[in-house]
Give the backbone structure.
Amino acid sequence: MEIRKKVKEILSQIPENVILLAATKGRTVEEINQAIEGGIKFIGENYVQEAEEKFFKIGKVVKWHMIGHLQTNKVKKAIEIFDMIETIDSFKLTKEIDKEAKKKNIVYPVLIEINSGNESQKSGVLPEDTEKLIYEISKLDNIKIEGLMTMGPVVKNTEDIRPYFRLTKNLFEKFKNLGLKNVEMKYLSMGMSDTWKIAIEEGANIIRIGTGIFGPRT
Ligand SMILES: *Cc1c(COP(=O)(O)O)cnc(C)c1O
């Protein structure tokens, strides 16, 4: 099915408050433009350099989210391109974003990435370390935490992802009530092509879909 139709089909199945973010790593500007014609308003990219090349051609007709691991030395460029970074997992990285945001005199929105499967090889902050990180970040003047993101482990049966989404949602609810300045839990980003229905059931309001829109990655 063509990209435009896929986007429309998914949009017709999700509640109005849920953001459909197209995960566009490895996709061409042509493919992305078709998704935009179908109704995509948010794009997620994993690499700063790849995003930069596309941003140059597509521009600000959509919102850009960073959904890949961000290196400290790419922060300056990243915050020029991206409207939000979803993958915050360390204070060091966030301090760097704060520094660049200060120079631009903006308060920059981020999501904290939760390593909900406690997987040593994956990025994201461990669930038990998250509250401490949020306290630290909340002291930075030019950062605002707007929610949480998680990938979750690779599972055989899609239903097996549910506990990891539920764990992340529970943290989301808990952090809502911390009463910290610069922390407002608005966005819960979870669910991909195979798991977005479960994610919405568990409270996601950003779903990130690649293959479900563009087909298999080649
Ligand atoms: C690639 C990617 C997705 C989308 O994955 P699909 O299985 O292609 O839908 C979502 N989130 C992140 C962080 C990704 O890197």
Q: What stands out?
A: The chain has one domain: 3-214. The pocket of pyridoxal-5'-phosphate is lined by residues 23, 25, 46, 67, 151, 192-193, 208-212 (CB under 6 Å). DSSP finds nine helices and eight strands in the chain. The beta strands are 19-23, 42-45, 63-66, 84-88, 108-114, 143-150, 183-189, 206-209.
